[in-house]
Specification:
With 436 residues, the protein is α+β, with helices and mostly antiparallel strands. It is built from 11 helices and 12 strands. Strands 2-1-5-4-3 form a 5-stranded antiparallel β-sheet. Strand 11 and strand 12 form a beta hairpin. It is elongated and about 150 Å long.
């Protein structure tokens, strides 16, 4: 537009000069000269507009379209051959840009849908080390929305483990709620700079199935071989005990009786492992958590009293009992095992526990918590509590929590066993679904 005004001003100046020239030179027939000059000037103006002003205006309009990223509009031909070639090239370029922009938008939309539907947790960093994107799976795994926060501002244990990872590193971790994750810290190029993102992959089901298959096979083979051998040994020992070839030697008789006792103990030891593998199928029936605690109250209170531990059962204020599909017999055994572990942790503490106590509390119609004030669980042991054959007790077999975890998983319950860093109490929290 600026160029067109300059050309208009130049043409007017030329026109005025040419119109006043006859009078300045005192020429005859000045009127015809003026008219011819006017016609010539008008022709000159049209040629200037057609060959310079219109192409310049078209270029200016094209620059405005690019600046506004309006790839849908097109330029009209100006009637000048070279300018029209540029206009055609510009229109073709705009068509390609529009197609590429539409393709990028469709791909980004598909990528957004794919990320949101992914079973893996995905988190993306901004350039200020804050998390700018997290899909719904990541929010669920972390237990909070991390967008706009740094990793050190999150309370999830997964965030703490991510902080120790370097770029392009991966690690498999097991949490105290028996969940197993693979954490990966990767990066992609954004505006010429590497931009980190995090992946959280759940491996719980795969690892659990592999572990279960492995320990079931080991237990079956071990049980078969040991029981067959012990049966032969016990038969031989019973025969020796009857015929007593050593006569009246009481020492030999005592030795044989000790061997019989150890054979029975070993058979019982192997049988206890087999029982974990052969857990009966669930027989759920409507039952509230309050009723479940009432069924075992007398037994567990007596169990605590016999070891000098105060045991209490309570229901949080305002909680209305709700019937859930529970197998009462199996869950009674689960709670007895949990309480037994709590009592033993208190009794076996290196330093005496002041006011030893265990509390079973219904915090919600579907939530049950067993709390003790024992010495607590170390962070190293917390990640291995529910693994096969792991035990923190010197004489433990690693069966109790394995049995507990299996029964709770069959009920579809989520659970965790952690020692709080604030009040130092150890809590076994169980959350049951309303329907299976």
């Amino acid at each position: 537009m600026k160029g067109s005004w300059l050309f208009m001003l130049l043409a007017i100046v030329i026109l005025l000069l040419m119109a006043g020239l006859p009078w300045l030179l005192d020429l005859k027939h000045g009127i015809w000269y003026v008219e011819g000059t006017l016609l010539l000037s008008a022709l000159l103006l049209y040629m200037l507009y057609a060959n310079i002003v219109r192409p310049v205006n078209a270029l200016g309009a094209g620059m405005d379209l690019l600046r506004e990223q309006d790839y849908s509009s097109r330029l009209s031909l100006v009637g000048q051959r070279d300018a029209d070639r540029i206009v055609k090239l510009f229109n073709d370029l705009m068509g390609r840009l529009k197609a590429e922009r539409l393709k990028v938008r469709e791909q980004n939309h598909f990528l957004d849908l794919l990320i949101e539907a992914s079973p893996m947790g995905i988190l993306s960093y901004g350039f200020a080390d804050e998390i700018v994107m997290a899909n719904s799976t990541a929010v669920k795994m972390l237990g909070e929305n991390p967008e706009g926060k740094r990793l050190d501002q999150l309370s999830s244990p997964l965030a703490k483990m991510f902080m120790s990872l370097r770029r392009d590193d991966s690690v498999t971790v097991r949490l105290s709620d028996t969940m197993i994750y693979r954490l990966s810290r990767l990066s992609f190029m954004d505006q010429g700079y590497p931009r980190p993102f995090l992946l959280i992959e759940t491996l719980t089901d795969e690892v659990r199935m592999a572990e279960r298959s492995a320990y079931e096979k080991v237990i079956r083979v071990m049980g078969h071989e040991v029981n067959n051998s012990m049966a032969s040994i016990r038969s031989l020992l019973d025969l020796l005990g009857e015929i007593r070839p050593w006569g009246d030697d009481d020492d030999l008789s005592a030795a044989v009786d000790a061997c019989v006792h150890r054979a029975e103990a070993l058979s019982s030891f192997i049988t206890s492992y087999s029982k974990v593998v052969k857990i009966p199928p669930l027989r759920p029936a409507p039952l509230s958590l309050v009723e479940l605690l009432n069924r075992i109250e007398t037994f567990v209170v007596g169990m605590g009293k016999s070891r000098g531990v105060n045991l209490s059962i309570s229901v949080a204020q305002g909680v209305q009992p709700d019937e859930l599909p529970l197998d009462a017999e199996l869950l009674e055994q689960v709670l007895i095992n949990i309480v037994k572990n709590s009592i033993e942790s208190i009794v076996s503490a290196k330093e005496p526990v002041a006011d030893p106590r265990v509390t079973l509390e219904v915090l919600a119609p579907t939530m049950l918590v067993v709390t003790d004030n024992g010495p607590g669980i170390s962070s190293e042991a917390a990640t291995s509590l529910f693994t096969p054959f792991f035990s923190t007790k010197p004489s433990g077999q690693g069966l109790g929590l394995m049995f507990v975890a299996e029964i709770l998983r069959r009920h579809g319950a989520t659970f965790s066993l952690v020692t709080s860093s604030t009040d130092h109490l150890t809590r076994f929290t169980m959350q049951f679904p309303r329907k299976q």
